[in-house]
């Protein structure tokens, strides 16, 4: 079972998939974010990390100017935000068009 997520692996994953969710293993908000994304028709790639590896990822993301907030959502190859951003854009009816533009939705 893979536990570490190197910055190269994260970069590759984010570039290959339209929507990526990176989270702590067992975090209930990961389920919420995944279900909200699925609700609008996206199929996010989800990568859960063991607690011990979250700090490593946080340091690497900070170097890239991204504040660690798990679950971290990446859309269209870029950091999008966390749970609050997903909910806010869903409520504002901005999430579906954004996901469509990123190629995460077919319709």
Write the layout of secondary structure elements.
Elements lengths: L6 H10 L2 E6 L3 H12 L5 E5 L1 H13 L8 E4 L2 E4 L1 H9 L3 H7 L6
Parallel strand pairs: 1-2
Antiparallel strand pairs: 1-3, 3-4
Helix pairs in contact: 2-4
Family: Belongs to the glutaredoxin family. CC-type subfamily.
Organism: Salvia divinorum (Maria pastora)
Subcellular location: Cytoplasm
Ranges with pLDDT <50 over ≥5 residues? none
Mean pLDDT: 87
State the distance separating the first and last CA atoms.
35 Å
Structural class: alpha+beta
Work out the helicity level. 40-55%
Largest sheet: 4 strands, mixed
- Secondary-structure element pattern, one letter each: HEHEHEEHH
Shape: globular
Strand content range? 15-25%
Subcellular location: Cytoplasm
Keywords: Cytoplasm, Redox-active center
Family: Belongs to the glutaredoxin family. CC-type subfamily.
Protein name: Glutaredoxin-C9-like
Question: What would you say this structure looks like, in words?
Answer:
With about 110 residues, the protein is α+β, with helices and mostly antiparallel strands. The chain is built from five helices and four strands; from the N terminus they run αβαβαββαα. A four-stranded mixed sheet has the order 2-1-3-4, sandwiched between helices. The mean pLDDT is about 85. It is found in: Cytoplasm. Keywords: Cytoplasm, Redox-active center.
